[in-house]
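Lab notebook page, bench 4
Experiment: in silico fold of construct C2
Operator: M.H.
Input chain length: 408 residues
Purpose: comparison with the prior construct
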Amino acid sequence: MAVNLTAPTEEDLLPVAGVKLATVGAGIKKPGRQDVVLMELAEGSETAAVYTRNAFCAAPVILARQNQKQAASRYLLINSGNANAGTGESGMQAAKQCCQAVAELTGVDASAVLPFSTGVIGQPLPVEKITAVLPEAKDKLSENNWLQAAQAIMTTDTVAKARSMQLELGGKTVTITGMSKGSGMIRPDMATMLAYITTDAAVSHAVLTTMLHKAMNQSFNRITVDGDTSTNDACVLVATGKADNKLIDSITSEEGERLLSALIEICRYLAQAVVRDGEGATKFISINVKQGQSQEECRMAAYAIAHSPLVKTALFASDPNWGRILAAVGRSGIANLDVSTVTIHIGDVCIVDKGQPASDYTEQKGQSVMDEAEIDITVWLGRGQAEDSVWTCDFSYDYVKINAEYRT
């Protein structure tokens, strides 16, 4: 059950001028399920994307990278239930066939189609099932299908993840709507499982790309469920320009800064939603590391805590076994760490004060924090001014069960 996360309603999600979506059921993994999404982007839209750095990246990731370099993107084709990863040359041909089918149906070049897949690794993509439902998808394209699309891209997710917001830029109302999916195999490396954020703002390609990377680094690249980076991770940011605002061609302009701030807010919500819906999660954990010599060493300490099975299982048990947190910081790999300068809190309770057990700590105080559904862990390294944060969740019995039974 997702931690303090509810599914959006259709009324929550605003249409973005220049973006149309459709969902159809191809029966890729389970019959009767909506598992294919077609997204149409208005001509002239700018598209930026980041993809997994996993060496075994999926065929659709390889092809999407290639296509994005060759032509302006007009369609995104997303399927759940099959990752088309670890499938070799036949997987690449399958991805190309799907793009070609969209191209023939819509009259665009195949390179204008970006494919995305999520699901089981190592199984052939059922191309015929996907191409058979594409005419239906084309007929159903609408600006108002965001909720259905967010549901269709889910795999082990229990809650659809999507959000909208509006802001004024130069006297024009600009809309941002995005969706993401992900629940397990989450430790992004320049992307998340799958995320799509769209806006009707007019933004230059260079600025849009910079905005995406900046937003990613403050959101999706700060989450982890289990430390596993997927073969299929991708995040796409689209700007259709239909809001008729003055083109944003500088990220440091007032309009550029305001749009970036809104994009970060959307991305952070979607990223944290992935963690809140982590497989079997019962707790949402914010890990904040401060007073480091660099952001990098702050991240090292934060991820050491976030990836520790002993810490994560203690969190699930609501067990204030704070020695596990201390041990994780100590083995994080920070060079020349002086433990006598380290202070650690869980919530507002000090557990370690300058390298030693806090004199006023009691098990009762620790228990009161660990019983909460949302917990902050804060570490002061006492060696600089840098800081960084990571969001994660606990490990429950259900995490093991979900992944043990994933292919059944």
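Observations: The chain is about 30% helix and 25% strand. The chain has a mean pLDDT of 95.
Next step: discuss at group meeting.
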